[in-house]
Every structure is written in C-alpha cells, then in structure tokens.
Design goal:
The protein is α/β, with parallel strands linked by helices and 211 residues long. Helix content is 36%, strand content 22%. Helix 2 crosses helix 3.
C-alpha cells in the first residue's frame, strides 16, 4: 500500500482481541521482511509493516546514521514523529487499537524512540537488538506499557551495557521492562521467536485477567 505516508503491508487478523503488531525491519529489510516473524510471534493478530523511508547504500532504514552505532539524532527524532503519524493514520484506516511494536535492530531503535517521543502511539514494544536511541530523551510517562528487550550476548554491534542502559531508562519512565540476553549474536534466531511468543502470551493473559 502506498496511499499513506509509508509504503507498507497490512495483514488483517482473525483472532478476536489480539493486539496488533507494528513490524519494524532492520537495515536492508522492507515491508515484507518481518511478516513471518509477526505471524509466528502473534498468530492471528493484525500486522502493520511499513518500509523505512531512508536509503543507505540502497538499503532501506528508518533513520539516518553517521556511522555504525552513531545516530543522526535530528533525523531520528523527525522520522520517529513521522512514523508515529503514519501509525495513527493506519489505525484510522484499518480500525486498529494501539499496536505493540516488534522491531529488529534499526527498527527496534526507532520503536524505542517512538516510545520516548510519542508514547501514546504504542501499547508496548518487543525490541530485538535495540540500543539507546536518544542521548537526552524528554521526560515521558510509560506507566503500564510492557516492553521486552532481547539482546545477543555475542552481538558485535551493540555492547551489553548499551542495551542495559535502554532497559533502565525505559523502566525509570514507568515501563514494565523485561530484558533478556540470549547466547547469540546480532542476527535473529528461533530463541528470539520463543521468548517473544511467551512474553506476548503472558501480556495477553494479564490483560484478559484484568478485563
């Protein structure tokens, strides 16, 4: 679909009450990249999957970087607001509640930035291989928002201390953060799927119990 601000795929769900997922790909991915992951993690949930609007050496990304692990924060902030606006427009178009973001690498980083800049847009987040997106984020209230951060113990790109700082920052803002570190590198694995599946089942069980 191209009539909203981002090229995207929308896959309607068939499971009543399932929270939709906002799928945010890594560098070089596109709107099709994480659909299988979304379907595995949340069977029957609606999936909204935009393509990043930045090209780096021909590879789509969600925001610019100055070097590996060094973000163009002005661009990141601008793109995070644009992505949040897209999500709001897509929610109106497809009649969706606030989604849980499921992001990988670059997609996880912009999801974390959206949480810190436009928290009302997301109901939670699953962040695979995320790092601190903003050096000086605004004060924000994330009370009640569940966040799962999944790091790789042998990740050559993201130091363990960086992911831990993100977990601490989101928790200090009130988010219910779980940080899992798996004995893997930067690439996604079946263990990522299993951890995200279980976390999401726990979230939905808690939501149903509170209803």
């Amino acid at each position: 679909m191209t009539d909203l601000s981002h090229i995207h795929r929308f896959v309607p769900g068939n499971r009543h009450g399932a929270t939709p997922l906002l799928l945010l790909h890594g560098t070089g991915g596109d709107e099709n990249d994480l659909l299988p992951l979304g379907q595995a993690v949340a069977p029957g949930a609606s999936l909204l999957s935009p393509r990043g609007q930045i090209l780096e050496n021909g590879m789509p990304r969600f925001f610019r970087r100055l070097a590996e692990g060094v973000f163009d924060e002005d661009d990141l902030r601008r793109r995070a607001h644009q992505l949040a606006d897209f999500v709001n427009d897509a929610r109106n178009r497809y009649d969706l509640p606030a989604p849980i973001a499921l992001g990988y690498s670059n997609g996880a980083n912009i999801a974390a930035a959206v949480l810190q800049l436009r928290p009302e847009v997301l109901s939670g987040a699953i962040l695979h291989r995320a790092m601190v997106p903003l050096r000086d984020p605004p004060a924000v209230d994330l009370a009640g928002k569940p966040v799962l951060i999944v790091s790789g113990q042998m990740d050559p790109i993201i130091p363990a201390s960086n992911a831990e700082r993100l977990a601490v920052a989101l928790a200090k803002s009130g988010a219910d953060v779980q940080h899992r570190t798996l004995p893997i590198g930067h690439q996604l694995s079946q263990a990522d799927v299993t951890v995200a599946q279980q976390w999401l089942r726990d979230i939905e069980f808690a939501k149903d119990a509170a209803a």
